[in-house]
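Q: Entry one of two.
A:
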Amino acid sequence: MAQSRSDADRLFIAGAGIGGLTTALALSRRARPVTVFEQAATIEPVGSGLQLSPNAMHVLRGLGLEEALRRHAVAPRAVRVMSARTGNAIAEIPLGEHAEQRYGAPYLVIHRADLHSVLLNAARASAGITLRLGTRLRDASQNAGAVKVELEQAATDGGAAHVDHGSGAGLIGADGVWSTVRRRVMNLRQAVFSGRTAYRAVIPAEDVPQHWRDVTGLWLGANAHVVHYPVSGGRQFNLVALVSEDWREERWSAPADREALLARFADWPAACRDLLARPPSWLKWALCGMDPGTDWVDGRVALMGDAAHAMLPFAAQGAGMSIEDGEALARAIDRIPDVPRALRSYQAERQNRAEKVLRLARANDRVYHMRGPMALARDAVMRGLPAGRLLARLDWLYGWRPPAAG
């Protein structure tokens, strides 16, 4: 049977996370049929907080999602940088109305599950998006005219899984750090453990002192730092403690030993220790990353988000880069009829910027975790700079927006 034009144009996206759904929505708004398949049988509200800086919000606004997101998000007034040595404030970097006026879009903090829910609801409402849960990619191949995927659909009654095949114009690997598309289809090296671990918890905001509920807190210490901010429309409070340590467990995410975590911060200021003691339990994630310079595209197959450029969270741009990728990828495919050429154009546009952010995150890792005289010098520089100058140093990052149509 001849393949329909719709099927021939269809793009497959592996992974229904933030990057995959953003890409699907951006493609569907350009009338491109999309099938998104996700290994998880159900989409559960998981994760903790994340930051949506103006560069990401420009994309989400263009997808018509800003109003829905604002119902769940908080626009922090500032980033308050604290010293883990003295307990005193080092600097306060303005956000809120200042950032929105400067960059033309808000700087928001939000629970990952809330962002994901907004994206998922929009995808389910789109006639151009087919969403297949409980479906994993077994294999894929390509020729000059098409990409072919082999998909395994889990049985809902406990029986044998169903395997089927599909053909379309391209395959996008949006399947995260442990990407099957990256490993099996493109035969590329996976991300590696960075020597850093993130401990995460979310608690009711009413359990936190009032003066922390409208800012992002950033505590800088030797070989560790702590970040916290309100999420869920201000109803909850997100806490993240990032430390240097070896990972000796078989899983890459796991329940954390609360007492061991608190002992790790025993010599930190009382105000920070008080916050860390409030969650009754913690989860931890091994932080993994990739080196710059890896190819993202092979013919009709492309990587995006963490599958392409997994980075440390020390620039708060993991979600933002995935969201930017999705918009750029859809725009390239809409502009260039030949899919392999379009994917190459997408990589050419995105790779230098994503890898610049990756390097920024690595640099922040060093700066945040300084000790001794280096830490004293860092703090003195930050105190001496006007608050607006500290923000302006990131104009290249936060000031990005998609090119105007035309």
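Q: Entry two of two.
A:
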Amino acid sequence: MPTNQYGLSLVVLRNVPLFSGLSEFELEKLSKVCGRRRVERGAFVVRAGEATDFLYILLTGRAKVTNTDEEGREIILAWLGPGESFGEMGLIDGSSRSASVVASEPCELLVLGKDAFQRCLQDNFLVAQRLMQLLVRRLREADRKIESLALLDVYGRVARLLLDVSVEEEGRRVVKKKISKQDMARMIGASREMVSKVMRDLELSGYIATEGDLVVILGS
């Protein structure tokens, strides 16, 4: 169960993008109703089909948003990192969890209950506005993924995934977060063997290069 740690939460809240722009007074009020939760690697934070009672904000660690197809195979819908939140949609429309969230490494989370979350939205237009921007961004990402699945072959889907998860670093596009071939396959709807073949072909053709755990996208 979430534990309340007033004071420590106040420090953390200042660095959460969803709550940036709130005054110290508003942050202090919010910190009094926030809890914290720690989850070990491989553990479920939430499961699909559960009632939605809390908003979660990832403070440390990484987690994956997953679902399963009709044959029980895992599909990775998204990756979450520090500062990112989940659970908003169910708190807004009262629906159950539409997907599971699993810790891919030890995670610490900030937890906000349904009543406190709804009061926060009612009292703070900035939070409501940032939440709308977050949901619009996720909708655009979902549209982009659907487009990739419908229009691109596996080569195109792998290339788009690499570009989507890459960052600019010293004038280069670099994939810094290590993603296994199996996880890549689960994200783009392909087999691990096919993803491995595509990655080899992209490297042999000079489109990407590996440097330790980094993947460098060449000519981008």
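A: Comment on entry two: The chain has a mean pLDDT of 88. The domain at 8-149 is CATH 2.60.120.10 (Jelly Rolls).
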